[in-house]
## 1
Amino acid sequence: MKLKSWLLAATAAIGLAAAVPVAAQQFESRTIRVSNGVNEDHPVGAGVRAMAQCAAQRTGNRMRVQGFWGGALGGDLQATQALRAGTQEMVVTSSSPLVGILPALGVFDLPFLFANEAEADAILDGEFGRDMTQRLEGVGLVNLAYWENGFRNATNSRRAITKWEDFQGVRMRVMQNNIFLDTFRNMGSNAIPMAFGEVFTALETRAIDGQENPLVTIETSRMNEVQRYLSITRHAYTPFLVLYSKTLWDRLSPAEQEVLRTCTIEGRDAQRRANREGNDRSLQTLRRAGMQVNELSAPEATRMREHARTVWDRHAEQIGRDVVARMGTELDRLRAARPGG
Ligand code: KDG
């Protein structure tokens, strides 16, 4: 009788094991928390959903990626410090608030650095981006991919910005980053550093006059409710870093690490696509919502870019002159190969 029970139990166990793909059997059951400062309807949500679906499919639903939105786990810098402490797995964060951890990241904050998304993708996904990823590992952060925050534009409640002098006296919120502070002070603004999570209320209470962000962020953060003017300046391009805690990363199996690398790239492609389609849609939505939208004329955009050049000179030392020089060389090479941009 005992033998029969044993045979039945063994048969059942083999049957169960066969039900889970062999590949999935090598994965532990785990939940990976990833946080961000924007709302879930921002294109970062599309990236996280694509990454989560990819990870679930490749691990038989054993690896679950759970998103936390609106700064629920803290702002960009706070969440990044939690990764370095090993108390949180992932964050999708702008590079700008992290320059205190890695000054070289400041190169991405230089005003008018990239001319278009194609340049940004080529730099970030190429040798330059890989070098920055290696530098991040040295401060306890595994950068799995560059996603897109995007080209930044100015909103405010006082006036349309038609030339750099129009920033004179406008209390502009900027990210907690010296290069952004300098860029807006250099144009006469009263620049105020502030975490993203505080911006809407500060605009609503008129503690500040304006802020600057990509169109999808302006729209999904409902800034049209507290801002009158939207001026298309494209004065900077901010990448998102998709960071994993190195302390926690080193505890993952090679198979788990491979799934996350592959799925974060799938998420990148979905997020960039959604961001670029979303920017066009957001502009129309913001116009319909009543914002007064203006684009800088080409001559005034050139004047603003030339006026901002002094910021490059003041921050090259802090960023690393080798980093700034290398970026310049890479961009010159790209532009020579694609004269049309
Ligand atoms: O978590 C990312 C957001 O906080 C992002 O919107 C940061 O662009 C940003 C800003 O202006 O703080």
## 2
Amino acid sequence: MSIKKDFMEERETLNEKVFDYAGKEIKRFFSLDGQMYRKGALDESTKEMMGLVASAVLRCDDCIKYHLIRCYDLGVTGEQIQEVLGIAMMVGGSIVIPHTRRAFKVWDELQGSPREAPENPEEIKALPETFEKLLETVKIIVRGSFERDEKLYSICKLLKEKVDHYDWVGFYEVDPKAERELVLGPYVGDPTEHGRIKFGEGICGQAAEQEMSFVVQDVSKETNYLSCSPDVKSEILAPIFKAGKVVGEIDIDSHRVEPFTDADQTFLEQVAEEVATLFSFSS
Ligand code: SME
């Protein structure tokens, strides 16, 4: 077990515990915490480094570890980490020193562990088990007391964070006010220019029209494809059905070629089924 896996798994288990008890205020606070670190005017790694300074000054070792892991995954270098911890010491004073010691130990232990994408095919094969766990968490989120969009956003965030080959996760909804058109809902990943997609256009539009899941292992081989970014190499999506009618889609982009297995498709179709209650009929 790696330090990263150990920590993230314990965090996940404890979060589930919190969610067993939490009312909507705590759940909203959790959701806000995630949203605050999303890419905006500041990029994700800058935000994580800011979180790291604040955590060190406030002397929370758990928080320090979390932000170090996020920084590591986002490609922050050791030189940058030592400057970040230097600022924390400057602000917090010598009382931060013991936490700085532990922080460098964590940083050291992280070296060599995979950043985001597992290169090891064994890890990819192990995913179906993870999918089962993830689906349980999706169910908990759907049943919870968040607002509808917060639930969908939390699911995007969960999937993007937990599945290494998911780089953009979002929902499209069939717009009840438009003629056979999809409108972008909550998503996590780089902003996309495709806020609206007509039925039949791109992978999303074809899936809505043909009412079926699409697995595109290599987007460069597709002619009817709407590109969001040159980084995207493959895409998978599952329509969301309500009483046999497509009401939306869950859409995933990956930065890898051929990353998807049947397990991804089954999983996304299960997720689509679970979230259907959050979608309404279009006319
Ligand atoms: N690639 C999609 C467009 C939407 S994005 O992937 C977010 C398509 O071809 O329909």
## 3
Amino acid sequence: MAHWRWNIPFEYTVYAWDLSVRGAHFDESHAFFNGTSIFLSVTGQTDEPCHIRLAPPVHTRRWKVYTSLPIASGHPEAAKQYGFGVYAAPNYDALIDHPVEMGTPQVLRFKAHGALHEMVFTGVAPKLDMARITRDVQKICASQIALFEPTHKQAPFLDSAQRYVFLVMVTGDGYGGLEHRASTALMTSRHDLPSLGVEPTEGYQTFLGLVSHEYFHTWNVKRIKPAAFAPYNLNRENHTRLLWVFEGFTSYYDDLMLLRSGVIGQNDYLRLLGKAISTVHRSVGRHKQSVAESSFDAWTRYYKQDENSPNALVSYYTKGSLVALGLDIVIRQGSHGTRSLDDVMRLLWERFGRDFYRGAGTGVGENSIIRLIREATGVDVAEFIERHVEGCEDVPLDRLLSQQGIAMVWKPASGDPTLNIRTRVVQGETHIAHVYEGGAAHAGGLSAGDIVVAVDSLRVTESGNLDKLLHRYQAEDVVLIHVFRRDELRAFPVTLAAQARSECTLEVS
Ligand code: ZN
């Protein structure tokens, strides 16, 4: 039967005003896009090579192109390096996995184990300490390459691109990241970036943690994938019970690699770890949902949160990172210090990751983690997984850490008494966004959606004012809270709680 091929010219305009790491944003100063926001997928032809011609804007000749997307070498209109022209991708999956930034950003470059990396800063960021950022990010990248490839120190992205590109959007208070096979799109606050001649803020560790997290994904999830993502089906949700491995382990290693590469010290690392433990323990949702369930429901629940989510959900990121820490210690103890979670990562890399884009591209089976950990380390973690991954039990970090010489100490956070709610100001009104289960407001009958209008007959105007009104009371005092629920005025006597947010600190014993 004859097989006809039609060339159909197709013209369309895209509305591009989403300044997030997953969208597309064009204005007179720059243009950024993810292929997912721009390129149509042709049913039945997604395995075919794609060419994309980028045309320069008419209002300036100064823009350059920053992307890990390879240049279409051999094509008559092939782009020159950083130039406009034709770029190429081997298939649709690759085409949408190389975001593109065009403009006049600040750029730094370095090599890690011989592989070229570049970091591109878009947005106003005066007096950036580029030397400091270069030095720190270089160390992080080099450490991660050496973790996965201790012998050959081969960077993972060379199967897809000539270099790795960090596309950083600098804003007032943005935060976020999205990983790709040879690049990542990051959003950061300019206050988290170091300035020349000034000691960096704690926020700089947040930025480096984000860099480390997304870079780690170059191995863990961009190449080592759940079988459910290999191949990824773009027409429907892709469910897996394993996101605690792909996001949780990555969240464990992001800060750990800052410590190992020497960009932060032990005290800073323990502070970050204490923060993660505090965050997980603050939410009662961890007793109701396992990280395996949380993974599976990512599409329908974790990314569609409602007013009750803090009471009903657990994060496969944060609890997943504690599971990774627990597993790391259990493996080290079970193997008498000869194996660690690193060995698991390396086995996953060799088995599933290294040749993912070169070969058949299989992924990690839903029920194979226990077997793979035993193969990599000789340690049986079946019971640990049953309790802390499939079940809702807390990872026993107090015991595990103390066996490693680290004491977990809980200190009540100082501060005013509290209603244990989260509020949101909408047009000058203080709305209750979340009522934390078991807290003061919950016991007193308040509900998410209530509009708080008065505390002991004094008017509540904005969130800062609610805190000020509570400032004069102590825990166990009863206050009368007036709220509108729907259009009905209600009054609830509420017994205030002490600041329930106790903080975990870790001390070397
Ligand atoms: Zn992630």
